[in-house]
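Protocol step 4 of 5: obtain the predicted structure for the target chain.
Materials: sequence only (see below). No template structures provided, no constraints applied. The aim of this step is simply to have a reference model before the mutagenesis design in step 5. Sequence pasted as it appears in the construct record:
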Amino acid sequence: MTFYELIIYSSYIHFPIPVRFTMGTENSRLNILWVADHVGFGEVIHGPGHFYLNMIPEFDKNAFKIVFCVLRGKQHLHDPLIKDGFTVYYLNRGKTNFLTIIDLLKIVKKEHIDILHLHGYGSANFGRIVSIVTKVPNIIHAYDEDINYPIIQVVSDYLLKNVTTKAIAVSKAVKRSCITKRNIPEDKIYILHTGISSSKFEKIPEDEFNQVKSVYKIGHDTKVVGTLARLREEKGIKYFIKAAPMVLKEYPDVVFFIAGDGPQFDELKRLAKDLGVENNIIMAGFCDQPKSVLSLFDIFILASLKEGFSASIQEAMALKKAIVATDVGGTPEMLKHNDTGIMVPAGDSKNLSLAILDLLRDDKKRDRLGVRAFETCQKWKLNVLVKDLETLYAGLSNKVLS
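Step 4 output (structure tokens):
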């Protein structure tokens, strides 16, 4: 039986499959299984991957035991959770390998799992089937509006819609996507913004700042307009590059800094050359110390065509950076135009150029936006989000926490 045949079969079951699992009882803790499709691209940990790694250690260990399971291999994770004493499983399975269900059933039984917290399409599909078998409640966690929502996922979400216990959307826009695309009932969806670690608010030491500037050969007084993103179509990096010529006519020494790697790297490099701005653009590739790079920026740009709830914007806000971002997805929930940032239409290089020029001309406005952004992002500190999740977990369980 294929994976999708199993989905169809499971969706028509009107009685519980006769498999029984004992819920956890150790110290009355809730045992939560986080299941993620993967945590990065190649060797690079992506935004949700950082979210997993930052979040899991923050839970109250007396009340919650978080077990982490990755459907793929372990090359992305580099074992930071294992070093901290957490249990991590790597299944080395593809997103349509139905043997994943058997693996998850074994983990649920071994770890006495009380709740399945599912991150990603594959995890949501397999995890909900495991919920049918075990009667363990599940939570689907949705991070973005998928403009390339695969047809097979449409079918899977439709067939499994009644199996979803709860869902978390990271923004109002993602919630709308969950309702319209994923067939999740509105009353089952919570909006819970992603959190930001307290360490992100700490400035890097001055000697480290100067060292990073030296590495990239950026002058002391040179203004840096930068972005930090995976180089994919939906991140709109080409519009960032197309904004450069208009800015450089007035400020010829400005550096446009692109931190990130991805399938568009060579294409974007050619675009910069075709526009004659390659000498003012630094394409740094993957940066393993994003905070150090963000610290270089005088203005942070997010030119995305779609966005869930941007971790990069949160990090820029925590560092008091002036921000220009496109008015898409969850970004309007993060920024207020001309108060905590400047909003521009997606795919509009001209308006992006004008916003950058506005901030380069006005130091006071740039500083004011940065300070207001910093004040606003305090509400997204990781400990606040963790408490909200702990409350949600407790509400789904009939176990009395100690």
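Step 4 remarks: The two ends are 43 Å apart (CA to CA). The first helix runs from residue 3 to 11.
Proceed to step 5.
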